Amino acid sequence: MADKKESSLGSEIKDWVISIAIAVVLALFIRHFVVELYLVDGPSMRPTLQNQERLVVNKFIYNLHDPERGDILVFQYPKDPSRDFIKRVIAIPGDTIEIKDGHVYINGELKNEPYILSTTRGDYPLATVPEGHIFVMGDNRNNSEDSRFADVGMVPFDLIKGKAVLIFWPIDKIKTLP
Question: Is there a contact between 90 and 105 (Cβ–Cβ < 8 Å)?
Fold first, then answer.
C-alpha cells in the first residue's frame, strides 16, 4: 500500500512539473512573438497616453502587414537599442513629410491631427520616407524626441517591436487604441 501511495505521489509531482514546464514555455513564446506588456515612461504621448500607464503591445501584427499612418507603436531607440520608445506613425514609406508654421503636411496635404496636445513648434524640411522606414512623432510634439531629431530619424522596420493595442492600467483608464 505504501508503494502505491509513493507511486501516486511521484506521478502527481511528475504531472505538475510537466504542466509548469509547458506553461513557462507557452508564456515565453507568447511574450516573445505575440504580445508584451509595456510601461509608458514620460509625457511625449500626452494626451493619448499618460506617464505610467501600462499597455499591451501586439508584436505579431507587423508580420501580417506594414505599419500604417496613425498606429501607435513601440520601437527600439536607434542610438541605444536597449531603450524602447513609443510614438505615433505619421508617414510611411514613399510619403513626403514637411512641418512648417506649426503644421504637418503629408504628401503636400495638411494633416488633421485632433490627438496632438499643442501646435508643433519648429519646422522640418520636405523629406521622403525611404522604403523600409517610418516617420514617427509623439502626440505631445513639443516634448517628444522623435523622427525630427537626428538620433531617432526615420525608424527602420527592423527596430519596430509592435503596435500598442490596449491600455490596461490603471483600471479606470482601460481602452483600446486605434
Answer: no
